[in-house]
Amino acid sequence: MQREEKQLEAALEALLQRINDLKTSIRTLLFRLENEYGSLSWPSVLDSYAVISGQMNTLLKVMKNDKTPLLRNLIVLPLVLSPDPDEELKQATEGRVVAFSHDITPDMLRTKPDPDVEQRQNQFEQRALQVPPETAQKQINAMNKVVNHVLEQITHSREDWENEATVRANAAHTCIIADTHALIAAVGLGKNLKTLPTAAPTQPGPGRAQPGPAPGKTTSTIKTTIKAASQAHPYNR
Q1: CA atoms within 13 A on the CB side of 152
Q2: Does this model's pTM top 0.70?
Q3: In whole angstroms, how far apart are CA 172 and each of 15, 120, 181?
Q4: pLDDT tens digits for 6-48?
């Protein structure tokens, strides 16, 4: 008797550990979906699903292990029913169950679905049995064809998205960000503009005098390309 109890305790401890790992992974994925949806990528979501799937398989292996007793042959009976809050129960259930009262006990210890749900499930099973095997196989083949087509479309779309993202990342820049910022600062704030000194008057001579800069005129140290005057201004209507 003591040996069976020890095996049961060890099996329950192993199951609880696997369930806690699974619960942590699901909680992490839900947190990322709710708070990091803007930067969350599809491959990372698939990785999370793969981890959850692996943990589910591990949990099933533990339950099917030869050392794990058949839990279906065991029953759980409440020792105490009380409407008063139980801090240990609240902590064990992470706040989901505050008190083990008469109202919540049937739902917590239920091993079968609700009678209404069970009745509807039986009706669906009866309807499924009435379908001829050939017709059912045709419907299954048609559904598989639709699902495979959808999977192909998703795969192609994913490849297109990844290729487009790669092309955008590797695309050459058509401008220099530093020069753009410098030009905006010069136009809006007059930054990096130098004031030229007042030019001395030139003496008339036989040759044609070169005009000097106007007094107070400023020149920019920023190199820009001056477009032809004949080009249409973008703001002209």
Answers
A1: 6
A2: no
A3: 54, 61, 19
A4: 888 888 888 989 999 999 999 999 999 988 888 888 888 999 9
Domains identified in the chain and CATH numbers: 1-74 (1.20.58), 75-111 (no CATH), 114-188 (no CATH)
Residue 185: count other Cβ atoms within 10 Å of its Cβ.
14
Q: How far apart are CA 60 and CA 68, in angstroms?
A: 11
3 state SS of 204: coil
Half-sphere exposure of 101 (CA within 13 A, CB side): 9
Cα Rg of the chain, angstroms: 38
Q: Round to the nearest angstrom and report the end-to-end CA distance of the chain.
A: 96
Polymer length in residues for the chain: 237
Spatial contact of 216 and 198, defined as CB atoms under 8 Å apart: yes
Tokens of 151: 């999977």
| CA dist., res. 185 & res. 168, Å (int) | 28
Q: What is the pLDDT of residues 116-133, one digit of tens each?
A: 888 998 999 898 888 888
